Amino acid sequence: MTEKLYDEDAYRRTFFAHVTQCLKKDGKYLVSLDRTAFYPEGGGQPSDTGVLNFVNVLGVHEKSGEIFHTTDKPLPAGAAVTGGVNWSRRFRLMQQHTGEHIVSGIAHRLFGGDNVGFHMGEEFLTVDWSRPLDADQLATVERLANEAVTKNLPVRAEYPPREALSRLNYRSKKELTGAVRIVTVPGYDVCACCGTHVAHTGEIGAIKVVGSQNYKGGTRFFLVCGAQALEDYGEKLKSVAAVSSLLSAKPEEIARAVKRLLDENAEQKHGLSALLEKFLAGKAASVPANRGDVYACEEGLSPEALRRYALLLAERCGGTASVFSGPDGSLRYALANSVGGDVRPLCKKLNAAFSGRGGGRRELAQGSLLAAREQLESFFGDSAERVL
Predict the structure, then answer these.
(1) Strand 50-52 relative to strand 156-158: parallel, antiparallel, unpaired?
(2) Shortest CA distance to 337 belongs to which of 307, 303, 367?
(3) What pLDDT digit, counting tens, does each position of 280-315 carry?
(4) For residues 266 and 47, what is the distance between their CA atoms, to the nearest angstrom?
């Protein structure tokens, strides 16, 4: 069994220990110690990293009470080592974990439901909640969580005696036996937890909900805490400044500027669509009527325009119209018939001949081909006439 120094003092950055064993695995080494301040991965919290003497600790995990440190070099059994925890990483995780406790405690008390899973990452923390939470509810949770931060409340981690534990109303994802470690944020949360936490809520810094989504009948929401929140704000501020410069608008006016730009773009697209419709109708009208089956290659047609031109040609020619667009080797196609024919057999033949994908109804099909334009001439031969 490894003595867990992080359990007693989450702020411990260095320690002395002895190597109890060292196993080679997949080009790395699993080193166990008689004592450690490295937190092992578990409960949604990533492991610590750092060094043992001059050997890098890449990750840490626990198995049957023994803690194994994955290192890039071996350390002989019996060797004395000095361990150093990557403190900036550890403290970020402490900020996140304590912030999650406060948020989950508030959400549980106000709106019911439970935290059924969470994960701390480098950029944000995810929390999976067992019931739906809307934007207003999450905003309330965020506001109250930041009030807890400003109160700079003590955060206690302890192992209550069995009698005291039985009287506690605490959150837990599963039934626990034996000694149970309880983390308490007075007035906000009481939860069974083995992770590392800050000593006072003021050390968390800002807590911000940055997004949410429906997840398995409940809600998955995303948090940033402390250093993460500052970095997130900085990145978004850069984005706002960049958009502000591109639009020649003040930061507080960019939403209106974007709306104006989108409206102008929609108007231009509508105008271009009308012009394209006239152009395609004119091209179709220039083809002799009732010509029969035809095919055409056109540059730069969107899937919608491709479909529309095929329908116009089919109506004009009185047969099946096959229209292709795109670069050689990656052609898109639309097949249409307006006189009761069935384009699906032709669609299957094209797909089989040119490794294509696509399908549709009797009167209209669309897809894509790995073909060049000159290959289409051989494919159609005398069965369809090419129109320019």
Answers:
(1) unpaired
(2) 307
(3) 999 999 888 898 999 999 888 999 999 999 999 999
(4) 50
Residue 174: Cβ-neighbour burial (10 angstroms; 0-12, 13-18, 19+): exposed
CA 333 to chain CA centroid, nearest Å: 34
Residue 65 pLDDT grade (very low, low, confident, very high; cuts 50, 70, 90): confident
User: pLDDT band at 126, cuts 50/70/90?
Assistant: very high
Question: Residue 46: which of 114, 92, 82 has the closest Cα?
Answer: 92
Summarised one tens digit per residue, pLDDT across range 15-43 is 999 999 999 999 999 999 999 999 999 88
Amino acid at the residue 337: N
Per-residue pLDDT, averaged over 144-173, amounts to 91
Q: How far apart are CA 276 and CA 282, in angstroms?
A: 10
List the strands of the sheet with 385-386, edge to edge. Answer: 357-360, 364-369, 331-337, 320-325, 294-298, 385-386
Phi-psi map region of 275: left, alpha, beta (phi>0 left; psi -120 to 50 alpha):
alpha
Beta-bridge mates of residue 191: 171, 183
Q: Is 111 exposed, middle or buried (0-12, 13-18, 19+ CB in 10 A)?
A: middle
Helix crossing, 254-285 with 303-317: angle to 10°?
A: 20
Count of CB atoms situated within 10 Å of the CB of 119? 15
Q: How many angstroms separate the CA atoms of 99 and 101, rounded?
A: 5
Predicted structure pTM score: 0.75
Helices (H), 112-150: 135-150
3-state secondary structure of 160: coil
